[in-house]
Design brief:
There is one protein chain. By secondary structure, the protein is mainly α. 37% of the residues lie in helices and 0% in strands. The protein has three helices and no strands.
Length: 114
Amino acid sequence: MTTGDGQGGPLAPLGDGRDGTTGRFLPGWRGGPGNPHARRVAELREALLGAVTPDDLAAIVHALVARAKSGDVAAAREVLDRCLGRPVVLGLVAGAVVDDAEPTVIVVEFDRGG
């Protein structure tokens, strides 16, 4: 990744526009070519947005909520993730102080009609 002068001295700049010591791009260097699929993804996204109306979206959401209410766990997870956000997993850092406050718990019960 880096090239030296052969004498143990400072590292020379790399041939790809990066600094030989830090690996960072040098000022004025535009970096890489970017995402080669970005243009195609943008075209597909534009086509999707043009094909789906607000009424279509409302119907899809109502159907998803109905499935969630009937006990479809995957549908319920999707609705909750979209409405409340995905659950955050917290890890403890060495030396961190744990607060004595009670965690918030959301309990969801499904009536399976039985």
